Amino acid sequence: MAEDRPQQLQLEMPLVLDESLTKQMRLRVESLKLRGEKRPDGEKLLRPAEAVYRIDFSQQQRLQFERWTVVLDTPGKVTITGTSQNWTPDLTNLMTRQLLDPAAIFWRKEDSEAMDCNEADAQEFGERLSDLAKIRKVMYFLITFGEGVEPANLKASVVFNQL
């Protein structure tokens, strides 16, 4: 006999490529190279295999992390690192101290359709997102693509239970 429990509503929030911010950060790297300058101490410059993604929290309160949904349509690896950065219109430079630990690493092996991840870190990171959602309308992520994966190969979202 089925128990009478209220069904929890789930809210899936996609990680969306922020093309404009990624482009701005790439221009910063090019600008430094053209002028022959080095990055200031502590600044995190975007590498070619990295892109900036974001989640727009349509709801901020009463969210409990449920799971990551990450799909790679080709074998490879992605590392999702959260940032504590609240980018301003002048695109304040990202500093390495603004990268959150732990990162969530997801991969798909050559001979498998299944996704694997570093579960403990992904779980801890997801739980932090529930807390950050309470104070943020937008959350930014630095995604590093490895082993031939690129943004077109990735679909990622975070699923929350609404309490």
Describe this structure in words.
The protein has 163 residues and is of the alpha+beta class. It has helices at 19-35, 119-133; strands at 9-14, 16-17, 50-56, 63-72, 76-82, 104-108, 116-117, 138-146, 154-162. The strands form two sheets. Strands 2-3-8-5-6-7 form a six-stranded antiparallel β-sheet. Strand 6 (104-108) and strand 7 form a beta hairpin. The mean pLDDT is 88.
Which helices and strands occur, and which strands form pairs?
Elements: E1 9-14, E2 16-17, H1 19-35, E3 50-56, E4 63-72, E5 76-82, E6 104-108, E7 116-117, H2 119-133, E8 138-146, E9 154-162
Antiparallel strand pairs: 1-9, 2-3, 3-8, 4-9, 5-6, 5-8, 6-7
- Please summarize the sheet with the most strands: 6 strands, antiparallel
The low-pLDDT segments are none
Please count the helical segments: 2
State the share of residues found in helices, binned by percent: 10-25%
Give the class from helix and strand content and strand pairing: alpha+beta
N/C terminus separation: 25 Å
Find the count of extended strands (DSSP E, 2+ residues).
Answer: 9
Q: Topology as H/E string?
A: EEHEEEEEHEE
Cα gyration radius (Å): 17 Å
Q: Report strand order across the widest sheet.
A: 2-3-8-5-6-7
Overall, the morphology is globular
Beta percentage is 25-35%
Protein name: Olfactory marker protein
Organism: Galeopterus variegatus
Pfam families: Olfactory_mark
InterPro entries: Olfactory_marker, Olfactory_marker_sf
